[in-house]
Amino acid sequence: MAKFFNEMTAETIGTADSTREHYREFHHWLAKQSAERLQRKRAEADLSFRRVGITFAVYGDDAGTERLIPFDIIPRIIPAKEWALLETGLVQRVKALNMFIHDVYHDQNIIKAGIIPPEQIYKNAQYRPEMQGVSVASDIYAHIAGVDIVRAGQGDFYVLEDNLRVPSGVSYMLEDRKMMMRLFPELFAKNKIAPVDHYPDMLLDNLRSVAPMGIDNPTIVVMTPGMYNSAYFEHAFLAQQMGVELVEGKDLFVDDNAVYMRTTRGPKRVDVIYRRVDDDFLDPLAFRPDSSLGVPGLLSVYRAGRVTLANAIGTGVADDKSIYPYVTDMIKFYLSEQPILNNVPTYQCRKPDDLAYTLAHLPELVVKEVHGAGGYGMLVGPASSKQQIEDFRQRLLAKPEGYIAQPTLALSSCPTFVDSGIAPRHIDLRPFVLSGKTISMAPGGLTRVALEEGSLVVNSSQGGGTKDTWVLEN
After folding, report:
1. Residue 1's pLDDT is what?
2. What is the predicted pLDDT for the residue at 69?
């Protein structure tokens, strides 16, 4: 039977370790709470979230277009020492990723050095030749990165994936904290928990710092695909919290090599666009001509350095799962440092030996599409039927270069309040890393939890929930 690291007790199945020191205050409090009170508080949270409109659209869900992301009232707690390690490792990783993206679109030294095969770049669906040789403000491409962290084995941290295109979830991090403070104010009096409510201010400062050259007081907007997008709540939330306009492509236009916003007082020049629209839909003149979400001519203004896009066009070349196995090499190559955070061992199915191993061990592995996201298009071998495994085998044989495989990690678990009471459920963590003049992040991030017993898939689109994440200040 697999052993899982328990965040509260450090137990693995078959052992009986005591509560970890940084959880003791909370553990004592939890032991005194009745199931009825916890149930009442959970219902209160659900009602409040529904009233505010914190819902998530699930694509392809026949049961309904939107639903509430389940919120768990038992927090995930991280001690200061562990967070310091994570923070240092994340700064290192995101710095190297930004250097890699710049290199890909300029000198391509990492390709010339033979570290990454050129076809992994040029045949990558996220590579944008239109960005070759284009200078971007401060050489920063991934202004906002959401890096998924898991803990496995005896408690070691691993990076599961890097989200550098339009990473989502930070609004849930902020709303989860507000909810916990409302439901259980006594806990915040007893525990020194690092605040996260300043994230919108950090994001705004970050976006201001990467304005085009010569712009001292930039006009910033959040660009959304519209109200039917799964993360629309977050787009509106962040715009409101930063005090900037929420716009759609139809609200913007290009004139005289600049981007303008339509307002009731006439056109207003826009300097920085925090875009939550995918590359393909940004400019119908440059990418998909059928896009009604973008701004005709936007790419030409961007290439001229007269508007900043966060994140940059073409960042996806670095968060593709086929590039993931090389990130530790990037850190060594660009920074001359050893990686602080480990990758999960990865088999690249385009390689014959890796493919042979994967096919021989499908019941034990997790297999992912290199361009996949949101928990879609993947096989979790131990949780799959023989028929599902055989079906996936045929997909692998038909297009091996489209997949990677990884061992099924024994993800750490955290006590979670479910219908049957308090029980361990598997979790991950998505910290949000901001790159501007400096690299910074709010302490913690979004903890996602797989609510089904035994499930290792935490994605909201696959039925996962969220928890508040506490980083203790001492």
Report:
1. 43
2. 81
Query: How far apart, in whole angstroms, are the C-alpha atoms of residue 29 and residue 468?
Result: 17
**CA–CA separation, 219 vs 270, rounded Å?**
5
Distance CA 153, CA 158 (A): 10
Strand, helix or coil for residue 273: strand
CA distance 8 to 27: 8
Pairing of strands 156-163, 144-152: antiparallel
Task: Give φ, ψ of 354 to 5 degrees.
Answer: -65, -40
Cα–Cα distance measured from residue 164 to residue 143, given in angstroms and rounded to the nearest whole number: 8
Smallest CA-to-CA distance from 76 within 472, 451, 470 is with 470
CA distances to 45, 54, 196, 234, 443 from 174, in Å: 14, 12, 7, 10, 11
| 311 closest CA partner among 131, 442, 471, 462 | 131
More confident of the two residues 230 and 387 = 387
Please report, rounded to a whole number, the percentage of residues in the chain having pLDDT higher than 90.
78
HEC readout, 159-198 = EEEEECCCCCCHHHHHHHHHHHHHHCHHHHHHCCECCCCC
Q: Is the omega angle on the peptide bond into residue 311 within 30 degrees of 0, that is, cis?
A: yes
Look at residue 314 in the predicted model and tell me its pLDDT.
96
Contact between 467 and 74 (Cβ < 8 Å): yes
Residue type, 296: P
Residue type for position 179: M
Backbone φ, ψ for residue 277 (5° rounding)? -115, 135
| Token representation of residue 412 | 């750490």
Q: Quick one: average pLDDT of 215-240?
A: 94
Mean pLDDT of the chain: 91
| Angle subtended by helix axes 170-183 and 35-52, to nearest 10 | 130
What is the rounded CA–CA span in Å between residue 220 and residue 243? 9
Bridge partners of 308?
A: 272
Q: Which residues contact 163 (CB under 8 A, 6 or more apart)?
A: 145, 146, 147, 148, 319, 430
